[in-house]
Specification:
15 helices, six-stranded parallel sheet, single chain, 8 strands, binds zinc ion
Length: about 400
């Protein structure tokens, strides 16, 4: 057996524990640059309470504002420009990102680019499209506080940045970008709208399954993936139907965090490869794209991943299966049923994808995620798969 595991330096998980942010942050620095994800955080007063907690612990707070979309190159560059001019490499500066995956990824990119000043644009450091500049300097310490339960960005080492003009969605990635502190308060997710809960929950489940069946998985990531699925599968419907159900919200936040750990250490697969393309080419939100693609990705990989999929059967039903093959089929169809029950569309055309766009989705799907798919897919096979799903 052989494995490595990269995780946030500290994880603080629990209902209401956002109140600890001040004392926790005081251990990391004395000035906090805050980026936040949704206007409702501000409107509901959660952000103000957070600032008070930070100030009463002796930290000064710089509010850098809100992002309400998945971050683009210009968003990062604007924020980084502001951050660099304010912080100037002073020891004691930290970044705090609170919000969904978009805000966390933006915070992560800002913390890294604040200290890696070789270029004025993050573009030069993005995988596959930039000049290949690496993150060589240690980023500012980052506190990640998720307000959705899905992307697991609080545990990962990459920030996904897109460009509408350049038609790409690529990662800024470095082991050093993993947050110093993941402060996960599931109570922050109770105000998520139903669809956000459903799509982000399906994103977490997709991440857990793809990182489970990829050949890059290890003993430790498989254990964490299975634990995440064990808690998420029975909880997701309940979290959607009863938004204030504490055990369901805790389960989904726990599963989302674990999905971040497993994806950071084992990678993903076809659903995430194509989801990136759907985001870039057709402006489909990440979680929704994953939710639509997951059943297809499982059917495509079903043969090579049969045993791992069959292992999940008891999460859906206690009945005994005569063969591994029957159990694997049951799991794939149960996942599809879960999406159906949550209102996930079944066809790409329901997402606004035009048939002629499929040809451009194929090359955009290639990247780090697709490389982890259990079996290789040629361009023509992928094109056929997406046409059948259209
Ligand atoms: Zn995802």
């Amino acid at each position: 057996m052989k494995y490595e595991l990269l995780m946030p330096r500290q994880v603080v998980f629990g209902w209401g524990r956002r109140s600890e942010v001040g004392t926790r942050a005081a251990g990391l620095g004395n000035r906090v640059f805050v980026v936040s994800g949704s206007r409702s955080l501000r409107a509901s007063g959660i952000l103000d309470t957070l600032f008070q907690s930070l100030r009463s612990a002796g930290l000064s707070v710089v509010d850098l504002g809100t992002i309400s979309r998945e971050p683009e190159v210009e968003d990062v560059d604007t924020m980084v420009h502001q951050l660099r001019s304010l912080c100037g490499g002073v020891a004691g500066d930290i970044v705090l990102a609170i919000g969904g995956g978009a805000a966390l990824d933006l915070g992560k990119a800002m913390a890294a680019m604040a200290t890696n000043t070789r270029s004025d644009t993050v573009l030069d450091s993005l995988e596959g499209v930039g000049k290949g500049y690496q993150i060589t300097e240690r980023p500012l310490p980052l506190i990640a506080m998720p307000t959705t339960s899905g992307t697991g960005s609080e545990a990962t080492k990459n920030a996904v940045i897109s460009s509408r003009a350049g038609k790409f969605k690529k990662s800024l990635r470095s082991d050093q970008m993993v947050p110093q502190l993941a402060l996960i308060d599931p109570e922050l997710t109770v105000t998520c709208p139903r669809n956000t809960t459903a799509w982000s929950g399906m994103d977490a489940i997709t991440q857990l399954i793809e990182s489970l069946i990829t050949p890059k998985s290890t003993e430790i990531t498989r254990a964490l993936s299975k634990e995440g699925l064990r808690v998420a599968i029975p909880a997701l419907r309940r979290a959607c139907d009863e938004p204030e159900n504490r055990p369901a919200r805790e389960a989904m936040s726990h599963a989302a965090f674990l999905s971040g750990v497993t994806l950071a250490n084992a990678g993903l697969g076809m659903a995430h490869g194509v989801a990136a393309a759907l985001g870039v080419n057709c402006n489909v939100a990440h979680g929704l794209a994953c939710a639509v693609l997951l059943p297809t990705a499982l059917r495509v990989n079903r043969q090579v991943s049969e045993a791992a999929l069959a292992d999940l059967a008891p999460l859906f039903d206690t009945r005994q299966w005569a063969t591994t093959s029957a159990a694997a089929d049951f799991v794939v169809e149960s996942i599809a049923q879960l999406g159906h029950d949550l209102g996930v569309p079944e066809r790409l055309r329901e997402l606004g994808v035009r048939k002629e766009q499929i040809a451009e989705l194929v090359p955009t799907s290639r990247g780090n995620s697709m490389n982890g798919n259990p079996r290789p897919l040629s361009d023509s096979e992928l094109q056929d798969i997406l046409e059948a799903l259209w």
